[in-house]
Inverse folding.
């Protein structure tokens, strides 16, 4: 009696050197050279397995699956090829025609852990790693690790092919890389956006309300009111404080124009005081001299992610009965003596412009406060001053946050601490590597927490310095080249060159180096090497 066959291999295109274990079932499929197929594996018709692939035992490949070269597949992995399988169609057993095969692609170099299930229609990117036991329901970006059911993003892999010193040397270093960040959270962002699309809460809604609570808690404030930009946040905070025509608001000229613009929107007058050299924030010794009987509010700016010196500001405000509104648009998570900015004064305003440390996928902003009366006014004012639908008790605005931004920001907020810590590590590394170059580096004032929205150095011949760095492929920014009091649009405020010497001098010297959480060590080395070279030539 002849021994029964331990392998069923019918009509299979086998490359050279393929190793097949016993008890396999392969038919009308293709297996590339040097691949190894473990015991009890089934590969159905029209499935394609590339070269150098290793497939462990008990794994099932259905029709429609394409596995590229160099892929590893663990034990007991199941691929599915019909999105909505049914036993019957119109009461009769299904035939081949009722069944729709949705292809699945696993790209070169990926690894799929034991007992994973791969739903049909997904693409697993190059070199991605799928943790054991995962249920993969969405496309997986290249070079990422995902796991769980449904599988979620865990981290980025520093792909050897893209991070060799040689490859890095040739690529420009961006000032900011939003794409790199998106790749790391794509798997979380997509279902969050999908949720908003499914429940149609395009404006405000559950995700915006959830985000308000979560962000307020993050900033150690009692409440948050989400709006459509940082500028709207400032505008409404000023209005809630009762600021209007005839009032004066003390702020700084070394900031983005929005700080000044928001004051002017209310009809009040911005009154500037200079900034001080260490923090580049409001020089507290100059505040009292700027106070007049019309002064109603002090508006310090936590510029670049560094807290202004809040204790003296609070004291002065208390002494003169002034409101404090913090412009924290660049300072998510920054701390002053252990307290999160934004919740120290009466109100704190944040921007979620995409490039911010916490950025929306569009415009966004929020006011945080511990004052229930301010909260109520701002909540009404952002939505046409309507107490209930079509009952307008205040003259308001359309400053509502969109639902999709709320959903995106909720996902991103979960990562903010690790992104902030990455920024702080990059800043510490710049500080170490540039310590012996004669340029002024940013300072973190103990015990405050700088969140390095911007890492700005002060360099000689700044514009030339910047051009030379660009020529070397290092992209930088200038925040900001002209202080607000010298901007043509605000000439009617009556200020002139020389009024705020420190703001004017730093506007000519500041150069912002590449700074974002995903900055690699290789990119940072290029920046440092280029800064050193340019410094020598100038
Ligand atoms: C200091 C400062 N204030 C206000 C704003 C205004 O925020 P938004 O652009 O969201 O209106 C910004 C943002 O650029 C800013 O950096």
């Amino acid at each position: 009696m002849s021994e029964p066959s331990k392998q069923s291999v019918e009509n299979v295109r086998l490359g050279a050197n393929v190793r097949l274990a016993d008890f396999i079932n392969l038919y009308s499929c293709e297996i590339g050279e040097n691949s190894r197929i473990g015991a009890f594996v089934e590969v159905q018709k029209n499935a394609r397995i590339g070269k150098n692939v290793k497939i462990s035992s008990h794994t099932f490949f259905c029709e429609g699956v394409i596995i590229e070269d160099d892929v590893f597949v663990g034990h007991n992995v199941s691929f599915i090829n019909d999105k909505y399988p049914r036993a019957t169609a119109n009461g009769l057993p299904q035939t081949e025609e009722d069944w729709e095969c949705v292809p699945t692609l696993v790209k070169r170099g990926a690894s799929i852990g034991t007992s994973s299930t791969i739903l049909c229609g997904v693409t697993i990117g190059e070199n991605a790693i799928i943790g054991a036991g995962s249920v993969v329901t969405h496309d997986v970006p290249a070079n990422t690790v995902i796991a769980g059911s449904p599988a979620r993003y865990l981290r980025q892999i520093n792909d050897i092919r893209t991070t060799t010193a040689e490859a890095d040397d040739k690529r420009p270093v961006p000032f900011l890389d939003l794409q790199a960040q998106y790749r790391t959270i794509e798997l979380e962002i997509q279902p969050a956006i999908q949720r908003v699309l499914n429940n149609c809460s395009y404006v405000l809604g559950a995700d915006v309300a959830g985000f308000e609570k979560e962000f307020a808690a993050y900033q150690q404030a009692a409440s948050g009111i989400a709006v459509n930009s940082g500028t709207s946040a400032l505008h409404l905070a000023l209005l809630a404080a009762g600021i209007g025509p005839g009032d004066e608001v003390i702020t700084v000229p070394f900031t983005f124009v929005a700080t000044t613009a928001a004051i002017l929107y209310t009809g009040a007058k911005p009154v500037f005081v200079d900034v001080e050299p260490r923090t580049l924030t409001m020089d507290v010794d100059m505040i009292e001299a700027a106070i007049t009987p019309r002064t109603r509010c002090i508006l310090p700016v936590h510029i670049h992610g560094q807290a202004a010196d809040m204790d003296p500001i609070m004291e002065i405000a208390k002494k003169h009965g002034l409101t404090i509104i913090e412009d924290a648009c660049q300072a998510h998570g920054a701390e002053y003596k252990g307290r999160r900015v934004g919740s120290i004064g009466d109100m704190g305003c944040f921007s979620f412009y995409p490039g911010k440390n916490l950025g929306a996928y569009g415009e966004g902003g929020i006011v945080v406060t511990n004052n229930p009366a301010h909260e109520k006014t701002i909540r009404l004012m952002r939505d046409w001053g309507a107490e209930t639908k079509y009952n307008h008790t205040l003259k308001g605005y359309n400053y509502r946050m969109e639902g999709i931004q709320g959903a995106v920001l909720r996902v991103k907020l979960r990562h903010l601490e690790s992104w902030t810590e990455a920024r702080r590590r990059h800043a510490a590394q710049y500080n170490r590597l540039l310590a012996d170059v004669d340029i002024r580096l940013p300072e973190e004032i103990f015990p405050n927490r700088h969140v390095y929205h911007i890492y700005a150095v002060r360099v000689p011949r700044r514009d030339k310095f910047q051009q030379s760095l660009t020529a070397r492929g290092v992209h930088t920014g200038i925040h900001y080249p002209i202080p607000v009091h010298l901007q043509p649009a605000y000439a009617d405020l009556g200020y002139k060159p020389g009024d705020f010497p420190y703001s004017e001098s730093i506007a000519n010297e500041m150069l912002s180096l590449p700074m974002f959480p995903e900055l690699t060590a290789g990119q940072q080395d290029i920046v440092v090497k280029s800064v050193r070279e340019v410094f020598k030539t100038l």
